Amino acid sequence: MKLVKAYIRPILLEEMYKTLRSEGHCCITVFRGEGAGQYTDPEHAHGSLNFPAMHSHVVKVEIAAVDEDVPSIIKIIRNTTSTESKGDGIIFVMPIEEMVRIRDGKKGAKVIY
């Protein structure tokens, strides 16, 4: 099992999500945020009341997946969110040691299906 985390431009979320669903990948979690770093697009960076430093709005998407689905998920994320510009985002893939469904205590990959 792996956890795929992607930081992307908010405007591209819907297309990415629709493509993931159409390819059989479900169960994503989405967070809105603001960030600064090498991925920040200097053309669209700005400050806000909460974070006065130069930064960009981002969406963090988290997807728990079985190992064999990860290459497809990464490909979909890249194909639907790349503008070939600085600030497109970044994808992280991390191992999941264990998954337990809160409702019934079931464990393993079956909890996401």
Written overview of the protein:
Strands 2-3-1-4 form a four-stranded antiparallel beta sheet, with helices on one face. α1 runs antiparallel to α2. The mean pLDDT is 87. It is globular. The protein is 19% helix and 28% strand. By secondary structure, it is of the alpha+beta class. The chain has a single domain (2-112), classed as Alpha-Beta Plaits, CATH 3.30.70.
Which helices and strands appear, and what pairs or packs with what?
Layout (H helix, E strand, L loop, with lengths): L1 E7 L4 H10 L5 E8 L20 E10 L4 H12 L7 E7 L18
Antiparallel strand pairs: 1-3, 1-4, 2-3
Features:
alpha+beta; 113 residues; Alpha-Beta Plaits
N-to-C span: 13 Å
Q: With helices defined by DSSP (H or I, 4 residues minimum), what is the helix count?
A: 2
**H and E order:** EHEEHE
Largest β-sheet summary: 4 strands, antiparallel
Level of helix content?
A: 10-25%
Strand content: 25-35%
What structural category arises from helix and sheet content?
Answer: alpha+beta
Cα-atom Rg, whole angstroms? 16 Å
- CATH-scheme architecture: 2-Layer Sandwich
Total individual domains: 1
CATH class: Alpha Beta
Order of strands across the biggest sheet? 2-3-1-4
Q: Would you count the extended β strands for me?
A: 4
Name the average pLDDT: 87
Low-pLDDT segments:
none
Broad shape: globular
| CATH fold-level assignment | Alpha-Beta Plaits
